[in-house]
């Protein structure tokens, strides 16, 4: 079957949605584009999405990374940032989050050059930045991979989602990875950080995490 496409452009992202794409085509694209590409790919049973993140998207992603690292330094004995690694289940689905993190399984991942979900665990936390590119379509991929928690940020509100035993995500008021952090507090922190120079927002996150660890 010949792939069909839909182009979705905006100030925030440039996206191309292709349907009727084979698994081999997806894997070949990953190989041909290589590791130093600016396009993120997600694949779910024949549907391929290509997205080129904007500066606004990447800036928000960086701020969220700062928050996770500040919390992890206070509340986790170990962690590994896996960035936008390609996580895939052979023959069915693959996804590249804005960011991803290992905590409990950090020691199992450290030092690896590649991650194979046939033998390696999925990340415990992924971050998706939704300015205009809706990440909800990718939730089914994360569920199939077994990702326990998703943070979804649209530039104004942070939503926290936990994977349920039946294989779907439910929005929750508190983080699973960091129970001290609620959706409301995270949103407030991110709103404060939006108007600060980066050194000051780093101090803000570190101070907040230190106060909650007492």
TrEMBL record:
It comes from the Bacteria. Residues 23-177 form the Putative restriction endonuclease domain. Gene3D superfamilies: tt1808, chain A. Pfam families: Uma2. InterPro entries: Nuclease_put_TT1808, Restrct_endonuc-II-like, Uma2. This is Glr0602 protein.
């Amino acid at each position: 079957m010949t792939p069909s496409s839909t182009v979705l452009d905006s100030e925030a992202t440039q996206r191309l949605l292709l349907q009727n794409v084979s698994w081999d085509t997806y894997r070949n694209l990953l190989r041909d584009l290589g590791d130093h590409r600016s396009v993120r790919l997600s694949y779910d049973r024949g549907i391929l999405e290509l997205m080129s993140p904007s500066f606004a998207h990447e800036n928000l992603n960086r701020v969220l990374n700062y928050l996770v690292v500040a919390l992890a330094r206070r509340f986790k004995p170990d962690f590994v940032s896996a960035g936008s690694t390609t996580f895939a289940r052979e023959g069915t689905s693959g996804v590249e989050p804005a960011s991803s993190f290992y905590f409990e399984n950090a020691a199992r991942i450290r030092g690896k050059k590649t991650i194979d979900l046939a033998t390696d665990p999925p990340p415990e936390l992924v971050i998706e930045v939704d300015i205009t590119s809706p990440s909800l379509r990718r939730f089914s991929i994360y569920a199939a991979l077994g990702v326990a928690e998703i943070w979804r940020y649209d530039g104004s509100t942070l939503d926290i989602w936990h994977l349920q035993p039946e294989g779907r995500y439910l929005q929750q008021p508190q983080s699973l990875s960091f129970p001290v952090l609620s959706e409301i507090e995270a949103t407030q922190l991110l709103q404060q950080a939006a108007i600060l120079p980066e050194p000051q927002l780093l101090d803000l996150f570190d101070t907040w995490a230190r106060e909650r660890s007492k």
